[in-house]
Amino acid sequence: MLTEKQPKTKTPTKKQPKTKTPTKKQPKTKTLTKKQLPKKLVEKHQRFLTGYNTEFELLNKLLILEEKQEFITHWTEDAELEDDKKKIKAYSTQKKKNEKELSQINKKLEEMKITSSLNPKQRQTFLKNIIDSHKEAISYWAELSK
């Protein structure tokens, strides 16, 4: 049986508004001039240097206080051998004060959220090298920006 093709009729449809797919706007990149680039690099190195110097100073204090703690322990042992209660009491007071300072510095270092497998002395040496490197970079880029 042959059937006759029926003409297609267009049914009126409402046009759906086109939905825009959200796209992330790319940040506009600024073009830097030859004088601006060195200045920006100097600023970047100075920011790093500030953070490294802060940690370096804290580690320096920590190492000094740890050494002081060892001396106080030694002096306390000597005073105990001499049975000098006055010195024992004085050293005990110094030891408590020193422990409190050590605790505060350790807390500050933890707040900086620095993760390192190095001990404080190794970390301090590492930071000294990094600080020297950033100082050299600052000198280099500052000279170029003139």
Please give a structural write-up.
With about 150 residues, the chain is mainly α. It has one domain. Helices cover about 70% and strands about 0% of the residues. Helix 1 runs antiparallel to helix 3. The longest helix has about 45 residues. The protein is elongated and about 95 Å long. The protein starts with about 35 loop residues before the first helix and ends with a helix. The mean pLDDT is about 85.
Can you give keywords for this protein?
146 residues; mainly alpha; elongated
Topology, element by element:
Blueprint: H1 36-82, H2 85-111, H3 120-144
Helix pairs in contact: 1-2, 1-3
Give the strand tally: 0
Separate helix tally: 3
Q: Give the termini distance in whole angstroms.
A: 94 Å
What's the gyration radius in Å? 34 Å
Show unreliable segments. none
Sheet-strand content, in percent, reads under 5%
Could you describe the largest sheet, including whether it forms a barrel?
Answer: none
Question: Brief description of this entry?
Answer:
The chain has helices at residues 36-82, 85-111, 120-144.
